[in-house]
């Protein structure tokens, strides 16, 4: 995190404290303590040394600022724009008119966490470390439009999405009408969620391979190129806030709040001018081994639990096929 970003965050939080509490006299120092921990990865002990405070004081200020920033989430992590075509799509012939109803991309990412021994089996992900599985929806300006943290690392992305959609408490922004999110092969291709073809080259690096169904490869390539927004968002987010590479031993709820607070601050910075977004995309969380691991939807479309869901998958499959044919025909004409 560079000095300009730190200053922008201080101004944001000072303004919030002044409007809400009519007091901002000690905010800069408290915010700097917070930023040293989340932005630079400093420990509370080191931060206390820098500011000549006890670790208890630093922790209290840290929790205070963190909770205040989480309180800004409704203002800074807003729902997707379902009414307008994203400029990235509208102004690019690779994507328009094919993806004109796309309103964002979805994926999960793992944030390392520290939990008590009896919770470790549930939080241990397939890579062997304990983590929270974070579900995010992003737009094509690389901002979060929805985020839910706190799920155990062993839980599959598709289950997190399913639970977020089914439980009103999560307030998931279900796409209306013909609108949809881009998802990867770990999710079912169903109404509101457009996934790539399985068994066909998908990742951008796979384009160097030859053979296969060229129509489906073209669709998958453009799908991957557009959905890459979520990987880029994760990459910028994690490079900006080093604490996300390994959250310290705070209570589990505080670890969850840190993730949300960092997402709020990420959106604020992305709304600011002169933001550097030249950060490599995070590696896709799914690899070829996923295709054989079972889980909720890996390797094949999830078995629909109702006749209505089966109809939604069939409908979206036809839509994807029609879109692929249109893409291929247009490409051959040019």
Structural write-up:
- This protein is an alpha/beta fold.
- Helix content is 45%, strand content 10%.
- The chain is built from 11 helices and 5 strands; from the N terminus they run ααααααβαββαββααα.
- Strands 3-2-1-4-5 form a 5-stranded mixed sheet, with helices on both faces.
- A hairpin with a 5-residue loop joins strand 2 and strand 3 (144-152).
- Helix 2 runs antiparallel to helix 3 (44-51) and helix 9 (214-240) crosses helix 11.
- The longest helix is centred in the last third of the chain and has 27 residues, at 214-240.
- The protein is elongated and about 70 Å long.
- The relative contact order is 0.14.
Order of helices and strands: HHHHHHEHEEHEEHHH
Tell the overall outline.
Answer: elongated
Low-confidence stretches: 21-25, 284-303
Q: Over all CA atoms, what is the radius of gyration?
A: 21 Å
Span of the ends, CA to CA: 44 Å
Quick description:
By secondary structure, the protein is an alpha/beta fold. 45% of the residues lie in helices and 10% in strands.
Which features would summarize this protein structure in a list?
single chain; 334 residues; alpha/beta; 11 helices; 5 strands; elongated
């Amino acid at each position: 995190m560079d000095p300009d970003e730190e200053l922008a965050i201080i101004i944001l939080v000072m303004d919030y404290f002044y409007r809400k509490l009519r007091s901002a006299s000690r905010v800069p120092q408290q915010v700097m303590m917070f930023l040293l921990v989340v932005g630079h990865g400093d420990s509370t002990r080191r931060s206390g040394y820098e500011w000549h405070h006890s670790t208890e004081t630093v922790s209290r200020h840290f929790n205070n600022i963190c909770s205040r920033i989480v309180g800004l989430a409704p203002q800074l992590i807003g729902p997707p724009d379902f009414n307008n075509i994203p400029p990235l799509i509208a102004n690019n012939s690779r994507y328009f008119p094919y993806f004109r109803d796309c309103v964002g991309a979805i994926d999960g990412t793992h944030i390392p966490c520290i939990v008590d021994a009896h919770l470790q089996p549930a939080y241990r992900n397939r890579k062997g470390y304990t983590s929270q599985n974070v579900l995010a929806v992003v737009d094509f300006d690389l901002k979060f439009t929805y985020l839910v943290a706190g799920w155990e690392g062993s839980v599959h992305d598709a289950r997190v999405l399913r639970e977020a959609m089914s439980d009103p408490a999560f307030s998931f922004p279900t796409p209306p009408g013909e609108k949809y999110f881009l998802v990867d092969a770990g999710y079912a291709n169903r109404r509101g969620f457009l996934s790539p073809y399985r068994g066909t080259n998908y990742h951008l690096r796979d384009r160097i391979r030859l053979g296969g169904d060229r129509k489906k490869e073209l669709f998958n390539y453009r799908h991957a190129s557009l959905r890459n927004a979520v990987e880029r968002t994760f990459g910028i987010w994690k490079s900006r806030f080093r604490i996300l590479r390994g959250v310290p031993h705070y209570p589990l709820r505080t670890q969850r709040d840190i993730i949300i607070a960092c997402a709020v601050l990420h959106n604020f910075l992305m709304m600011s001018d002169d933001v550097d977004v030249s950060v490599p995309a995070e590696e896709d969380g799914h690899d070829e081994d996923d295709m054989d691991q079972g889980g909720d939807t890996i390797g094949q479309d999830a078995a629909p639990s109702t006749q209505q869901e089966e109809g939604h998958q069939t409908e979206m499959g036809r839509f994807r096929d029609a879109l692929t044919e249109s893409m291929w025909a247009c490409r051959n004409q040019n």
